[in-house]
Backbone:
């Protein structure tokens, strides 16, 4: 039941482990395990680990999850139940993968702390690190199948934004507009993941909690949404004005658009992530709005909606072909409005390819 894709991923992971001098990689239920094994069992308080050694891999598996998980994988299970506890099964799993004397262990940084401490307690003297140089590095570069799913989800998100544009009107609440967005995701078989609808002054809060404020004539509205289908997400932000946009809006929209373009131009293989952030930030700072750009320029996206690479002012991650990340500068004027324009891109040999086909122009609702 080991697919060709999973076999290639485990081989690539082992190559990275050898480069980094790693004897064992330990992954908890979550996106790292999903990437490496093609699934992950239900995550709860019972220790569950995928252990990847130099030549073999095995699961520490709660017996409660074993039968259902066996349908997903042929990887060896070392099971345990609540009456006995996981210690003996963990020792057997470590022996199975040749890691009883592991000196360097890579831990999934998202696993529960008690899982990590259980494992380290079984390997006294082992030093540990996280996944940056191993599975994390591999996950940043997307293959053709991953890109196809991300592109499909981007198209669904484009159409959800268009549904919001068509529905927006004075008097409806942010929550009512969000419901239109969620309904559209569901209509295409996608699970709605988040929906930020920030109208008027609420748009100046980058992570505004969509609420009961009613859209009013003269509002600029931030619409930042995402869904998930086929195991991958979407993320897009566009702007809509209810009637005539507020005073000064057009000038600031132009500045943010120029910042997007500057970041797109800077994003090339071999460039450090902080250079892309600096390109966007310079446009906004030079226009006098630097203090109103209050977040990073972008984040990676793959199985997780937010994952490396992070496009920040300090990130020295060297961008590589195949990486997928957002470019989303913004300007937020307290008490008035916010503007964020977001694209998800995949980095190609000659620069970024935008997944969305939706223009970044302001959409104006006639009233």
Residues:
């Amino acid at each position: 039941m080991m697919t060709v894709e999973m076999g290639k991923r485990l081989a690539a992971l082992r190559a990275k482990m050898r480069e980094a001098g790693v004897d064992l990689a330990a992954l908890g239920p979550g996106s790292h395990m999903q990437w490496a094994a093609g699934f992950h069992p239900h995550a709860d308080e019972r220790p569950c680990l995928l252990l990847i050694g130099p030549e073999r891999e095995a699961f520490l598996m709660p017996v409660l999850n074993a039968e259902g998980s066996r349908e997903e994988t042929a990887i060896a299970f070392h099971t345990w139940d609540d009456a006995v506890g996981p210690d003996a099964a963990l020792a057997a799993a470590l022996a199975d993968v040749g890691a009883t004397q592991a000196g360097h262990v890579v831990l999934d940084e998202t696993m529960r702390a008690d899982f990590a401490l259980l494992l380290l307690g079984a390997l006294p003297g082992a030093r540990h690190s996280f996944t940056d140089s191993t599975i994390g590095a591999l996950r940043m570069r997307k293959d053709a199948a991953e890109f196809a799913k991300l592109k499909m989800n981007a198209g669904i998100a484009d159409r959800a934004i268009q549904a919001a544009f068509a529905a927006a009107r004075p008097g409806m609440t942010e929550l009512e507009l969000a419901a239109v967005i969620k309904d559209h995701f569901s209509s295409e078989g996608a699970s709605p993941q988040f929906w930020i609808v920030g109208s008027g002054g609420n748009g100046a809060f980058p992570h505004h909690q969509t609420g009961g404020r009613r859209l009013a004539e003269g509002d600029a509205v931030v619409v930042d949404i995402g869904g998930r289908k086929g195991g991958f997400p979407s993320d897009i932000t566009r702007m809509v004005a209810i009637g005539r946009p507020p005073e000064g809006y057009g000038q600031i929209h132009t500045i943010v658009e120029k910042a997007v373009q500057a970041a797109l131009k800077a994003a090339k293989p071999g460039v450090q992530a902080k250079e892309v952030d600096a390109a966007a930030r310079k446009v906004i700072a030079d226009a006098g709005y630097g203090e109103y750009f209050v977040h990073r320029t972008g984040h990676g996206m793959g199985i997780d909606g937010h994952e490396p690479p992070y496009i920040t002012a300090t990130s020295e991650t060297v961008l590589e072909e195949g990486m997928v990340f957002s470019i989303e500068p913004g300007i937020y004027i307290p008490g008035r409005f916010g503007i964020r324009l977001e694209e998800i891109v995949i980095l190609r040999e000659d620069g970024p390819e935008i997944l969305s086909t939706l223009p970044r122009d302001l959409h104006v609702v006639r009233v």
Q: What stands out?
A: Residues 177 and 309 are 32 Å apart (CA to CA). The longest helix spans residues 144-167. DSSP finds ten helices and 18 strands in the chain.
